[in-house]
Specification:
mainly alpha; two-stranded antiparallel sheet; 7 helices; 2% strand; globular; disordered C terminus
Length: 169
């Protein structure tokens, strides 16, 4: 069994949506799964922390080294994001609004039709506030992924933000 199949198997065993990572979700187009890890890494510092989308109660769950982990033996303070965590985050993000995502990928148009971008840009109520502005590195990272050609430099710039320093009493 190859690494991608093992990651899918682990994610499925944890009751996470088990659709193939082939650019389709029940016949609907999805962005490229192979380029998603760099996008997921860019989302982690601002969106994937334990107080945000790095928790199970969210409709958009981001798994990874800075937040929610699939393996209970891993903590958010250590270790890199695993392939299974990238796969689970990909499924969570692409299944959030599959029809709107499909329409955007097929016909282009306004990215503001995706709640992911409306909320992150502050155009819609978002408990986390504004997380990106049009044209900033995270915005370029997400938009380039949706367009099919990830702007690696923008994604890496955001992903390399240091972890916040915890001040314990």
């Amino acid at each position: 069994m190859n690494r991608s199949a093992r990651a899918l198997s682990l994610a499925c065993s944890l009751a996470i949506s088990c659709t193939p990572l082939n650019g389709e979700l029940d016949g609907l187009l999805t962005p490229d799964a192979q380029s998603f890890p760099v996008v997921a890494d860019a989302l982690q510092p601002s969106c994937g922390t334990l107080d945000c989308h790095g928790q199970l109660g969210r409709n958009l769950r981001l798994f990874g080294g800075r937040g929610l982990r699939l393996d209970p033996q891993h903590t958010s303070a250590e270790g890199a994001t695993t392939e299974a965590e990238y796969a689970a985050s990909y499924r969570s993000l692409t299944a959030l609004e599959p029809e709107a995502l499909d329409a955007l990928l097929r016909a282009g148009g306004e990215v503001e039709k995706l709640s992911l971008l409306r909320k992150a840009r502050g155009r819609e109520q978002h408990r986390g506030g504004v997380q990106l502005l049009p044209g900033d590195p995270l915005d370029r990272c997400l938009l380039s992924w949706l367009a099919g050609a990830v702007h690696q430099a923008s994604c890496l710039r955001v992903a390399q933000k240091p972890r916040p320093v915890l001040h314990l009493p």
